[in-house]
Write a structure and sequence with these properties.
The chain is built from seven helices and five strands. The chain is an alpha+beta fold. Strand 3 and strand 4 form a beta hairpin. The radius of gyration is 15 Å and the shape is globular. The model has no long low-confidence stretch (mean pLDDT about 95).
C-alpha cells in the first residue's frame, strides 16, 4: 500500500454519493438522500461509524485489493460463504459479462472506499462491493496498483459492519 496524500471527509463522501448514484439499477436519488441522513445520524450502514476517521488516498496492489473484506451484512456473508472475501463470492456467484465489463473499466471506475484500524490489520469495504466482486472475478483486469480511499480509525471496531 502506498499512501498518496490525505483526503478530506467531504471528498470521500462526494465520491461515495456519486458512486451510489452511478449504480442506477440499484440506487435512486431518494436512496442516496437516505444514505446521507444515515451518515449524519450514524445509523443504518453507518451505525457506530466513528467520528475520528482520517482519510487517505492510497494505491493498493492487486493482492491488497483482493484481500479487502466485504461489510458484515447478511447478503455479503451469504455470497462469500461467510468469508467476506470477494474471491470466494466470485466462485459462488460465477462470472458473467457484466462483471467482465466492470473489471475491464478498473482504471476509470470510481474509487473503492475502505476502512481500517491503526494497525491496518484488515481492510473492510465501505463502498464498491459490486466493483470488488468484478475485480475478483476477473483479476487480470486489475492494474498493478489501484487508487482507493482509505479511512483509518482507532475506533473502527465500533462500526457495526466491521
Amino acid at each position: 500500500m502506498r499512501v498518496l496524500r490525505r483526503a478530506t471527509e467531504a471528498e470521500v463522501l462526494e465520491g461515495f454519493w456519486d458512486s451510489e448514484l452511478a449504480a442506477v439499477s440499484r440506487w435512486t436519488p431518494a436512496d442516496v438522500d437516505e444514505r446521507k441522513r444515515q451518515w449524519n445520524t450514524r445509523d443504518g450502514l453507518f451505525d457506530g461509524f466513528p467520528d475520528d476517521v482520517v482519510w487517505e488516498r492510497v494505491d493498493l496492489t492487486r493482492d491488497e485489493v483482493l484481500a479487502i473484506l466485504y461489510i458484515n451484512w447478511d447478503w455479503w456473508l451469504t455470497v462469500s460463504n461467510g468469508t467476506r472475501l470477494a474471491t470466494v463470492a466470485a466462485e459462488v456467484q460465477g462470472r458473467d459479462e457484466g462483471d467482465r465489463a466492470i473489471a475491464a473499466a478498473a482504471a476509470t471506475n470510481p474509487e473503492l472506499i475502505a476502512v481500517t484500524d491503526l494497525e491496518r490489520s484488515k481492510l473492510v469495504l465501505l463502498e464498491g462491493h459490486v466493483r470488488l466482486t468484478a475485480y475478483a472475478a476477473f483479476p487480470d483486469y486489475l492494474p498493478d496498483e489501484l487508487a482507493a480511499y482509505l479511512g483509518v480509525s482507532r475506533r473502527i471496531a465500533e462500526w457495526s459492519e466491521w
